[in-house]
UniProtKB/TrEMBL annotation:
This is Pyridoxal kinase. The keyword Ribonucleoprotein does not apply. Its cofactor is Zn(2+); Mg(2+). Belongs to the pyridoxine kinase family. GO terms for biological process: pyridoxal 5'-phosphate salvage; pyridoxal metabolic process; pyridoxamine metabolic process. Catalyzes the phosphorylation of the dietary vitamin B6 vitamers pyridoxal (PL), pyridoxine (PN) and pyridoxamine (PM) to form pyridoxal 5'-phosphate (PLP), pyridoxine 5'-phosphate (PNP) and pyridoxamine 5'-phosphate (PMP), respectively. PLP is the active form of vitamin B6, and acts as a cofactor for over 140 different enzymatic reactions. Homodimer. Its main location: cytoplasm. Pathway: Cofactor metabolism; pyridoxal 5'-phosphate salvage; pyridoxamine 5'-phosphate from pyridoxamine: step 1/1; Cofactor metabolism; pyridoxal 5'-phosphate salvage; pyridoxal 5'-phosphate from pyridoxal: step 1/1; Cofactor metabolism; pyridoxal 5'-phosphate salvage; pyridoxine 5'-phosphate from pyridoxine: step 1/1.
């Protein structure tokens, strides 16, 4: 019987749609993981809609939930997964929980999507309070094992700009030096030889050899853009990267190919369904662009590889 692998996921929750824990839970369960979810917020739907309602969990309430797990001795985890957070005290409490769990299990892997902002039309901006940046730099990234920033977030964390692949690799080295062994820049505006319809993603993984030396594997992926605004894709990416790096711990190339290819299949199915619902010539709504997760179960379980990674 396969050994149980359990994930503690601390992310947002929506009643309708797929972001945060809703985007992470189904794929991880499909891929064989037990997942315990703490909902940092509970909203009716994601904030890309015209209206939303709901509640936000604070740091004290997070600590209370974790204490309940401790009292029942069920706070044993193999992975911690975190995403969007708006409050620095809540984020600091997450770090305290991760540190305690790592004391219990030295092999625990912390996968962090440091959600802070993005670039639009070449200009970057933060969509969380700026006081979260030093918490990420000084507390979160040093205890993380895998991080999945976009280009703008990688620049914020490293304090360096990225204008070329060489500069991106240097930024990933800076992030490695801060703590994580695996860094994946999930999207960038670096030029693709295949044209402007493609996005570039880069990955870097440090591995220790049996003789004690360290080797670094670096990869590059070129992904076709989809002309639509999806919400929850970063949460889905981080969850699937957790799963595929677990199944291929010493092969970042294969783990990223499976992650990105599954993403491709989910997004292509989603945009096809959304356009069909919207009607010819009509722009799909936020509701119509919700990720088609259940319909993509087979692609999540065993993705056909459509995005090949190049080893640098």
């Amino acid at each position: 019987m396969e050994e149980e692998c359990r994930v503690l996921s601390i992310q947002s929750h929506v009643v309708r749609g797929y972001v945060g824990n809703r985007a992470a839970t189904f794929p991880l369960q499909v891929l064989g993981f037990e997942i315990d979810a703490v909902n940092s917020v509970q909203f009716s739907n994601h904030t890309g809609y015209a209206h939303w309602k709901g509640q936000v969990l604070n740091a004290h309430e997070l600590q209370e939930l974790y204490e309940g797990l401790k009292l029942n001795c069920v706070n044993k985890y193999d992975y911690v997964l975190t995403g969007y957070t708006r409050d620095k005290s809540f984020l600091a409490m997450v770090v305290d929980i991760v540190r305690e769990l790592k004391q219990q299990n030295s092999r625990l892997v912390y996968v962090c999507d440091p959600v802070m902002g993005d670039k639009w039309n070449g200009e970057g901006s933060m969509y969380v309070p700026e006081d979260l940046l030093p918490v990420y730099r000084e507390k979160v990234v040093p205890v993380a094992d895998i991080i999945t920033p976009n280009q703008f977030e990688a620049e914020l964390l490293s304090g360096r700009k990225i204008h070329s692949q060489e500069e991106a690799l240097a930024v990933m080295d800076v992030l490695h030096a801060m703590g994580p062994d695996t860094v994946v820049i999930t999207s960038s505006d670096l030029p693709s030889s295949r044209g402007s319809d493609y996005l570039i993603a880069l990955g870097s993984q440090r591995m220790k050899r049996p003789d004690g030396t360290t080797v670094t594997e670096r990869i590059r992926m070129e992904m076709r853009r989809v002309d639509a605004v999806f919400v929850g894709t970063g949460d889905l990416f981080a969850a699937m990267l957790l799963a595929w790096t677990h199944k291929h711990p010493d092969n970042l190339k294969v783990a990223c190919e499976k992650t990105v290819s599954a993403m491709h299949h989910v997004l292509q199915r989603t945009i096809r369904c959304a356009r069909a619902q919207a009607g010819e010539g009509q722009k799909p709504s936020s509701a119509q662009l919700e990720l088609r997760m259940v319909q993509s179960k087979k692609d999540i379980e065993d993705p056909e590889i459509v995005v090949q990674a190049t080893v640098l």
